[in-house]
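Posting this for the archive.
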Amino acid sequence: MKSYPRNVFFCLCMLLSSSFSQQNSYRFSIESVDEHVVLAIQTSEPLPCVGYSIRNQLRWEGDTVVVIVSGFVQPIPCLQGLEPASARVIVKRREKEIFFLKFREEAYSDIWKVFPLEDGFRAVPIQVSFTSFTK
């Protein structure tokens, strides 16, 4: 059996651990369902089981909806496959007013300005590093 120097394993472990600590990225869309505004969130990258959900909390701060993302919930049983994690959140009753949407995960924050339109919503980025809007 071939032996490797210890520093090779150390470098490999550092490489693996750094890839797991990278910032997650998310896609979101906003739709109107039964007179409510519904936010659909998905990870940009797939996770190793079918049916992962995104753990989140939602609260209002004035005219801003704050979505705090705090990890993932692994499905039991874990059916093997690659699929993005997802969440659907009822934000508020549909009104004709502009509101802000703030995503928070760990020390990161993204802010969007959301405009209701006749046929849906338009989100304009204000400060963005890990989220993207899909229509």
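Residues 7-21 have pLDDT under 50 and may be disordered. Residues 6-20 form the longest helix (15 residues).
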